[in-house]
Design goal:
- The structure is a homodimer.
- Chain A is α/β, with parallel strands linked by helices.
- The longest helix of chain A is centred in the middle third of the chain and has 17 residues.
- Chain A is globular.
- At the A-B interface, helix 12 of A face helix 12 of B.
Chain lengths: 314, 314
């Protein structure tokens, strides 16, 4: 388990490393929802996603002896970049396992932060096997993208900053995938604003967290099918234990609504967000969640998209 | 002429109406330029552009007797939206003259703020004639987009906020078109940081300000040809008088460099900016301006773009 003191400790470790991201509002979205919505812009975080917080906290928590052997992870997305940059800042090696069919731009992003990329076949089994091998060969510490208390505590620092800057929120929303962001957020919010609700928003095509939350146990036999490429992971055991205890609800959003919400944020807020970040915004715009008259915080989780292939274009 | 006290007065009028926009940095751009660059995000300003500052200052400056007859302007772009919203906030009528071939989305944006749109033929003469007629029929105060001291003073408030938040800048850069933003910026910067340079960046295909600056007199016989649709106006007489006195240089940037810079800002900074806003960024990236070791402020002027027609796509 984590508690609020872990998040405070993470915030101290992140100082001077992670950005304190701005909080934006949008009169048009307030009008559409009848709410006052505060967007915590983690798309403007380093590496373009909140993931940098968790990776940095985990890596900054290592002893010097642990750290000198480096860190390893498997990810072709934001978490891989986050680990690569956090390791660079601590001046230790990073090993990132990636499937060999990953687009060149994603490899380049990770390599650009100085990490060593280890290719594997594009299957879950090959990724796990390769990561195990790399870890045992190098002695590197494996930084899991969400099933890790220190990662979760790091992710919770975004909501900590949000609650400190914006008093009296009635509700805080995040996307949910592996569950690290939602678990960390709930831990911060329930401590700082006990009366506020915390809700996770999930693509209908990858609704393992929604199902698990309702069943009261992890349901993992889901084949994710969603445009939100950051939300295809299955809910992790550790985050799920936090989510069961501290989160009020999980809601589902279909991809068409997510694309509309994403475009609206680009057009009206002038912020590049990725589809994953648009999922909670869609939940508000679709009124999947009661919005009228409420003060609502939304974590805009990231902004890493392929500008040549936008979801509203063919 | 305007001086710094006009900008301070404008800042007081804007309080609670305009956003104090965030200032962002980007490690990648710092690396590419060898500088430390501070981006003042006027794309996150209301209506998506700095233009809201000037329009709001002009309209807030009117006496009640002047104001009650409303305000008028001609613009199919950011200034039209800015006047419409500023008038709405003062609860007075706004009349916006637009050519009849303007895309529906631009009409909708202005109409969405409650302004009355008056159509005219798509020629400069028809626009002027129509605006004159509207003004004389309604008695509305005409808010010129740049050739107006109050508008210029409003535009200067962005640089005021920038210089107050970021000490010891060596250089501040803005795009230049009609000249209001550059003139207001120079007035703020030269007062607050007398040692700092102020430079305007202009598309090579619309280089009337560059030519005028070198000639020491306004050169207006230019046919603008640039992707930067916000920078096709000809330098105004009043802003030019300020620019001659207070600006250090004007540089030119070609459209290809502007498009590369725009894409880089979207990709790395996760900010939607329009081509006009990318022009000063391009001047830095191309090293048209000395950057090494300097602390540089850049006004990202706006973020209004057609998301269906991005300049790096066909």
């Amino acid at each position: 388990m984590i508690d609020f003191s872990d998040i405070q400790a993470a915030a101290a470790r992140l100082r001077g490393k992670a950005h304190v991201t701005p909080i934006q509002t949008c009169a048009h979205i307030d009008e559409l929802t009848g709410a006052r919505v505060f967007f915590k812009c983690e798309n403007l975080q380093r590496v373009g996603a909140f993931k940098f917080r968790g990776a940095t906290n985990a890596i900054a928590s290592l002893s010097d002896a642990e750290a000198e052997r480096g860190v390893a992870t498997q990810s072709s997305g934001n978490h891989g970049q986050a680990v690569a940059l956090a390791a660079k800042l601590r001046a230790i090696p990073a090993y990132v396992v990636m499937p060999n069919n990953v687009p060149a731009i994603k490899r380049a992003a990770v390599a650009g932060y100085g990490a060593e990329i280890i290719e594997c076949e594009p299957t879950a089994a090959a990724r796990d096997r390769t990561l195990d091998r790399v870890a045992s060969e190098t002695g590197a510490y494996v930084v899991h993208p969400y099933n890790d208390w220190r990662v979760m505590a790091g992710q919770g620092t975004a909501a900590l900053e949000l609650c400190e800057a914006v008093p009296d929120l009635d509700l805080v929303l995040t996307p949910v995938s592996g569950g690290g962001l939602l678990a960390g957020t709930a831990t911060s919010v329930k401590h700082l604003v006990p009366t506020a609700q915390v809700i996770g928003a999930e693509p209908a095509g990858a609704d393992d967290a929604w199902r698990s939350f309702r069943a009261g146990r992890r349901i993992t036999d889901i084949k994710p099918d969603t445009i939100a490429d950051g939300l295809r992971a299955i809910i992790g055991e550790k985050p799920f234990s936090v989510i069961r205890a501290r989160v009020d609800d999980i809601v589902r959003v279909d991809d068409a609504a997510t694309i509309r919400a994403m475009r609206l944020v680009w057009e009206r807020m002038k912020l590049v967000i990725e589809p994953s970040a648009a999922v909670p915004v869609a939940a508000l715009l679709e009124r999947t969640i009661e919005t009228e008259g409420r003060r609502i915080g939304v974590i805009l989780s990231g902004g890493n998209v392929d500008l040549d292939r936008l979801p509203w274009q063919n």
